[in-house]
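Quick one before lunch.
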Amino acid sequence: MRRLRIAPKSLWRGYGHSAFLLLIAVAAFRSAGCDYRILAPANGSSSSAGIQVSISPKTATIAPAGSITLTASVTGFQHDSTVQWSIVGGTPGTLTTNGNTTLYVAPQTIAVSPVLVSVRARSNEDTTRYADAVITITKQPIDTTHKVALVLSPLSITLQAGQTQQFTATVTGNANTGVTWKLVSGLGSLSATGQYSAPSSLSQGSTAIVKATALADTTVSAQATVTLSVPDTMPCFTRDIQPIINSNCTMAGCHTSGGGEVRDLTTYAGIMGYVRSGNASSSRLYSVLSGSGENKMPPSGRTPLTSTQMNLIARWINDGALNNACPPDTSGGCDTTAVTYSGFVSGVISTNCLGCHSGSNPSGSINLSTYSGVQTVAKNGQLVGGLTGTPPNFLMPVTGTPLDACTIAKIRAWVNHGAQNN
Ligand code: HEC
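Model of the heme C complex:
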């Protein structure tokens, strides 16, 4: 609150009425740029409504290295209509000022997009009065045909299974800054407030598109790309390679220790007899698996390996064909909730069991290549019985190492929840 500064009483005591009016006039004169309020003269002939500063345009959206001319106007001033320009709060850019007009130039590059910059015009006559223009610097292409502008952030992000990302949409040029959110394509889900959640599990990489549309003008929208990635871990022998070979090659009469002339593939050393480390295409293991005619393995009547399995073997050989165990699971414990057939069980069976339990003559007459085949042994107890080697069931897989405790626990949970085709 600005106050009239009253001269000490002693100063004007004894002066006449005209001297008192003179003091008022001096106070009025000195008020420029000071902390005084101008008292209206008794006759009310003039009064100050107070200084108002405004800037045009109030908001703008420009690209890095772009510029915008801002013009300030001051109303209600007594004698000085000029302003001082400044950039508020250490935000980037430069000003080239010419009186009440200034040219704001954005920095060449910005680390994150968008950056919001406030440019301030402050009255020289009353420095408590100012106005700010808010300038958005964005890497997004600027649509100059619309006054409403929308800046979406971030524009691209990479997430893994189970991760979330809050998107923000900043609408300028209209009082209604609301937006609607939509998941245009891809996996995952998007909340009404722009929170994207990646699916809880991912078997392969993909992309999702998130879109924000301005309520003020539904022709104004922006899209962001979510890259859903599966961590690219190097295949490891004990988890990824041995079970495939075990399942597809080591059944009785084939590549087992008692197999006679043919090489025993139940051990790393045996497998390496067919591998040229670092070179999958010249490794016999890979060429027979991808071959045709008589050289093809597994022999006709047996199910060929899937392309995913072939790619794993190729990568493992090209990475040096190491006898490596997998890094320990750091995800913390074994999550047996929400185990599904398509997301987990069928993959385990494909890796570990189908070499023997598929095709025209499956081992034990048990075909596990279809859901109904798996469902049958799940319901009659043979699946968990086999995996745990609980009599009367034989331990499965019959050769190699049993499945790890967590995998068995997850399959047991899926069976206990009804062995659904989910
Ligand atoms: C190397 C070949 C081979 C692999 C790999 C294999 N099995 Fe078997 N499985 C057999 C043979 C052979 C039998 C028949 C045993 C018998 O009855 O003499 C059998 C029988 C079974 C049975 C019938 C129950 C029993 O104890 O007789 C189930 C269930 C079964 N396997 C599940 C699996 C599952 C699940 C996997 C994968 C984790 C698997 N098997 C991997 C060869 C294999």
